[in-house]
Amino acid sequence: MFWMIVVLAVVALLAYIRLAPTDVARWHKPVGNAETTDGEGWSARVVPDGAGLLSDLHQAMLGVPRTELIAGSVGEGRLTYITRSKLMGYPDFTTIEAEDGQIKLYGRLRFGKSDMGVNGKRLDGLLERVQAKRAKG
Length: 137
What we know:
By secondary structure, the protein is an alpha+beta fold. It is built from 4 helices and 6 strands, in the order H-H-E-E-H-E-E-E-E-H. A hairpin with a 4-residue loop joins strand 3 and strand 4 (78-84). The protein is elongated.
């Protein structure tokens, strides 16, 4: 009986992580004074804005597996995405914002305290893909 309760609790927790509603207003906020850095469960990158860069980043972000746009637009100058981990479906949120001649990218987790560097790697990979695409012309 004890193990059945444990299994049911784990299944309930996993279902909550996978199915919990997303409060878009909580995640789709201005990035603020971001600097290129990594923290506990979050990462930020800041790069100079360039012609069409926000649009290119948007297209590249939509190519990231298990990622969807949840708010914003290129025209608005701020976009927020949810990306779910492959196995457990943990949600991470990424906001990309154009402001004052800069593009600010901010990735953070929803559950837990550490993302084990996943958000920083995602942001770096995104910037590398866009840079490679632009270099090809």
